[in-house]
Amino acid sequence: MGRLCAFVKQKAGWRCVACGRSVKVDCPEPPFATCREPRTADRVLRRGPGTELKKILSGWPFRFASKNGCGCDEFATYMDRMELAEEGWCSRNKDKILDRLRTAAKARGVPFSQIAAAMILRLAISRASR
User: Fold this and answer.
1) FRET label pair with 16: which of 4, 6, 29, 121, CA 20 to 30 Å apart?
2) What pLDDT shows up at residue 52?
3) What pTM was estimated for this model as a whole?
């Protein structure tokens, strides 16, 4: 799976801020689609909340590295793009992000704490905003 589009709500559906893809659906949550943007745009998104969250989880004491096909890198990029498109997106959508972390923990067979994960997410958002 490639990168996910970073959709923002428009009058008649959703539009990806990275590749410009439009999806004409009327739903409260953004759709998931593979982004058509070239990979060269990654240098702009080096310090977003998703990247910071990935750094925290890959460091001590967690040592969780993304594995091939797990979608962690793509979701981190998605978080970065959405935060870039709409400041405060990660804070407003923390439940969605925590659900994703819970799913990833379950797939790896590691315990999950909602409170600890929320604190780590808050730290990642704070680091990205500096």
Assistant:
1) 121
2) 93
3) 0.67
